[in-house]
Amino acid sequence: MNIGNMAKISLKTIKNRAENEIKNSKNLKDLDGVYKKYLDKQSELSQILSSLKKLPKTKRIKLGKEANELKQILKKDIEQKTKKIKEKTFKQTYEKEWIDVTIPGKKPVLGHLHPLTQVKREVERIFELMGFSIIEGPEVETAWYNFDVLNIPKDHPARDLWDTFYLKNGMLLRTHTSPVQVRYMEKNNPPLRIIVPGRIFRHEASNANHEFNFYHIEGLMVDKKISAANFRAILQEFYRQFFKKSVKIRMRPSYFPFVEPGFEVDMTCTVCLGKGCAACGRTGWQEMMGAGMVHPNVLKNSGLNPKNWQGFAFGMGLERLAMMKYKINDIRLFYKGDLRFLKQF
Amino acid sequence: MLFSYNWLQSFFKKKLPEPEKLAEILTIHFFEVEEIEKQGNDWVLDIDILPNRGSDCFSHHGIAREISAILGYKLELPAARLKEIKNETKDFLKIQVKSKKDCNRYTAKVVTDVKVGSSPVWIKERLRALGLKPINNIVDIANYVMLETGQPLHAFDLDKISERKIVIRKAQKRERITTLDNERYALDKDILVIADSQGPLAIAGIKGGKKAEIDKKTKNIVLESANFNSKTIRKGSKAIDLKTDASWRFEHEIDFNLTQSAVNRASYLIQELAKGEPCKGLIDFYPKKLGLKKIKLDLNYTQSLLGVKIPASRTKSILKNLGFDILVSSASQLMVRVPAFRLDISIPEDLIEEVGRIYGYENVPLTFPVGALIPPKRNFSIFWKDRIKDMLRGAGFTELYNYSFVSKKQGEMFGHNVFDMVELENPLSAEYQYLRPSLIPNMFRALEQNQKNFKNIRMFELGKIFQKGKIGEKRMLTAVISGDAFYEAKGTVDLLLNKLGISDVWYDEYKPTPEHSKSLIWHPKRCAEIKVGQTEIGFLGEISPKIIGELKLKSRAVVFDFDFEKLQKLASEEQQFMPISPYPAAIRDIAVLVPRDVLVEQVLNKINMIGGSLIRDVDLFDIYDGEEIPEGKKNLAFHVIYQAQDKTLSSKEIDEIQNKIILALDKDPEWEVRK
After folding, report:
1. N or C: which terminus of chain A has fewer CB atoms within 10 Å of its end residue's CB?
2. CB distance from B451 to chain A under 8 Å?
3. Closest partner CB to B368 (pick from A114, A139, A230)
4. Topology of B89-285 in CATH?
């Protein structure tokens, strides 16, 4: 047999053998063997290709073409088989790596902000959007700022409205954030828009609804023509944003010596939306805050001329907002430091 | 304050709305009705009368007047048609007011031949419904008229008053009186009394005395109806710690004109119900007659303050229905005369409130203000507070809000002398006797409580502490980690300060002297002052095992305690980007054997000093002082990371620096670099 015939026969045999071996390969290592055996430089196929040099041109071209085609076919076969084997291996691995997705997740250790901090931030956010600056003031106050400048004279029954802690040094613990109104007006000229969050103190035994220290947010807006109608619009907008419900507010008469007229502000009960339920004592309303138009004496005491300026002021309890928002039934929980409570927020 | 629905109805011919409805109307236009209680065929309304209306609304007449103004019903006043006898009051009785400043008016009338007995059922029922105990017809009538008119009255047995002369004076020091309820009070010179020549008959405006008490045998009586100085009564009532229906009303000031009408009304009821015979005339001490106030009301201002235009005619009718007189009226102004019973009204804003509330605040529209668009000022204190809180939350800490008070014991346990703490004049209890001198005591109370339910506790609080002297109050940031966690706490502090943009931080080992208060609370070998430059900004340390033991804590606890005001001053939002070097980094290790008391910082400083800018980082990865290490020594192992900004460092360059470092470390005869 001449080289040509021999090569032709070999190609066929090689093809059969190789295809068989590829088919029977069980893993990537087997396949690698097949590759080396048939496609490497030392392989039979390569030898055949190199032996072709001695053949005449026409035969050489023909056989060369056939040999190259076979090379391509085998390469492709091996590639396909590789893919198949890989897929199979992955599948087996996946099977082995099955996990139970219903096992509870491992939580990263995150801390918790106090619910009052969270509610305070929300209140601050809403009022800041409406142009109110946030101001703070001292917790230990003089009777002058806590009472006298706020139009609550000494020896007046109105002082009994605030049960007060007095210090041995003659100072007192502020019973409301209202002193900051005056402190701010003394140093700033209208137009004024501020809210004052802060801790306040009342001398009374604690129970589910009362604490001896708690938080107030005071509000003050003073300009040329600020009216009760403005107060109503701003506060209703605040409550709507805070509770994310279309609540309404109503004002009714009340008395605080530092405002005139004075208002008590009720809001549509967030539980029954005004229908009347146990939470609101069947009235459909919940008491939210005390407010009013700043008393001319307070403006005067702060160095502003009541003929030129007017405005509203309000004070609301932060705990009350938090209790309504989270349905908390006992105000004392805020100050007990119990992590079983705090870690819920 | 309690009011009878039926009694209020008696002021009107027209039927009042049902009790529930009436309560709602009063709540919207007057004051809140807190409760309605059915009592027999009557209803008792509990109305929260606020102190400004004490002068006219601590009475059924006052509430009826409000109802009349709100509903527009005509008010019918109770009768007082006296059939007086010929004898004149002044022939039976002398009155001398010695303390004129304390007594604005003193009105008295004598009624003779009364038949003391039990009151008729309707009087008893009304008194009982409103919480008063019926005694006898004379006393009951005095009380009844007080509930009706708001004017407290008192009845004396005329024949028990020595020399039939009443003196109004200040008590003498240690003068005593036995009151009607058989209590004895020691008086002093600030307390006003009604006396005869022998001694006090009553504590003026507060409580009657036993001596001239009305009893079954009483025949002739003196009815007293006075107007005492509100401050005198308030002080007296506080001094002897006795509040009564009378003192409560006097404290709030009362219409001067009421004394006469009330005494006549009571005389009339005694004439009708106890067969008494009123004497002619009154004794009326009333030296300073008060005129009526006039207020100018600008209708444009009314509109501007309420934000709603109320027609002038409506404004006028509201004021008239409330008892005000309109003296002059123009298109934009009213001249209003205030009735004597409205002591609370003195400025135009007071009138605007009257008009607004009767008109109804529900009719005030919702109008957003018109004004300049001024952005709110940023509050940096709150900004940094929020930042710190968020950061600590991210680091696994839970925020606490503790009470602002501590007990003496708590303060002392944490090294605070009682003389340095701010003490309350009127604490709620010994547990809350002082203002907190630090956030640590209450934080440990919380730790003690929480260890029952949790392990690995991390908590913080940002709040005010109080100290004597100039500073008074300041904010602190305090956190605790339970366990042997000094380095966790230190790492948290580093991270926190880094996030606040505070650099130049170092830890100064703290060596307390035994007499220093801090020595009581910290573990003496595990605490450090946190410093920036030369300023101490905080403290980091393990709490002393003694306190841990006293509080029965299950594990150690590490605390960091910052002066927030100082933190805030140093904090900065500025931050600069560090270019990332495109050239590779190389890591070499150095292990050095040093005496146990050598600080890691000393070694680090040496390495960094030699390496300079070519060292990106030095990382302590092991401290070992166990087996194979000579006694009193420890082995420190570091990864030194080399990297330049402008080129790839060759191994030759790196070796050179590394060798220099080794040489420098080895220079100290006690130190030995392990090769």
Report:
1. N
2. no
3. A230
4. Phenylalanyl-tRNA Synthetase; Chain B, domain 3 (3.50.40)
Residues in chain B, overall count: 675
Segment B196-225 shows an average pLDDT of 95
Give the model confidence (pLDDT) of A16-51 as tens digits: 888 888 888 888 888 888 888 888 887 777 777 777
The answer to whether residues A223 and A288 belong to one domain is yes
Contact call for residues B543 and B521 (beta carbons, < 8 A): yes
**Alpha-carbon gap, residue B409 to B414, rounded angstroms:** 9
Same fold, B2-71 and B294-363: yes
Q: Shortest CB distance from B398 goes to which of A112, A173, A237? A: A112
Task: Determine, yes or no, domain membership for A36.
Answer: yes
Q: By the CB < 8 Å criterion, does A56 face chain B? A: no
ipTM of the complex: 0.89
Distance from CA of B162 to the nearest CA of A (A): 35
Please answer whether residues B437 and B409 qualify as being in contact, where contact means their C-beta atoms are separated by less than 8 angstroms.
no
For the cut 80, the answer to whether the pLDDT of residue A278 exceeds it is yes
Identify which of A156, A203, A343 has the shortest CB distance to residue B398. Answer: A343
- Residue A79 gets the label, from left (phi > 0), alpha (psi -120 to 50) or beta, of alpha
Structural domain count, chain A: 2
Interchain contact, B307 vs A116, CB within 8 Å: no
* Residue matched to tokens 């430089």: A41
Is A157 within 8 Å of B252 when comparing Cβ atoms?
A: yes
Phi, psi of A334 (to 5 degrees): -65, -25
> Is A252–B306 a contact, with Cβ atoms under 8 angstroms apart?
no
Residue B144, pLDDT score: 97
- Distance set, CA B453 to CA A339, A343, B457, B559, B615 (Å): 8, 12, 10, 20, 47
pLDDT bracket for residue A265 (50, 70, 90): very high
> B167 phi and psi, to 5 degrees?
-120, 135
pLDDT score of A107: 87
Range of the domain at A202: 115-342
B2-71 topology per CATH: Phenylalanyl-tRNA Synthetase; Chain B, domain 1 (3.30.56)
Does the B380-570 domain belong in CATH 3.40.50.10420? Answer: no
Q: What percent of chain B has pLDDT over 90?
A: 87
On whether both A45 and A187 belong to a single domain, the answer is: no
Please state which of the ranges A68-72, A296-300, B81-85, B589-593 shows the lowest mean pLDDT: A68-72
Mutation to test the B interface, candidates A171, A202, A230, most B Cβ within 10 Å: A230
Residue A331 DSSP code:
G
Q: Which of B364, B366, B425 faces A166 most closely, judged by CB atoms?
A: B425
- How far CA B436 is from CA of A205, B57, B411, B518, B562, in Å, comes to 19, 43, 8, 16, 15
Please report the pLDDT score of residue A61 as a whole number.
83
pLDDT of residue A68: 84
Model pLDDT for residues A141-196, shown as the tens digit of each residue: 999 999 999 999 887 877 888 899 999 999 999 999 999 999 999 999 999 999 99
pLDDT value at residue A3:
61
Residues of A in contact with B390 (CB under 8 A): 113
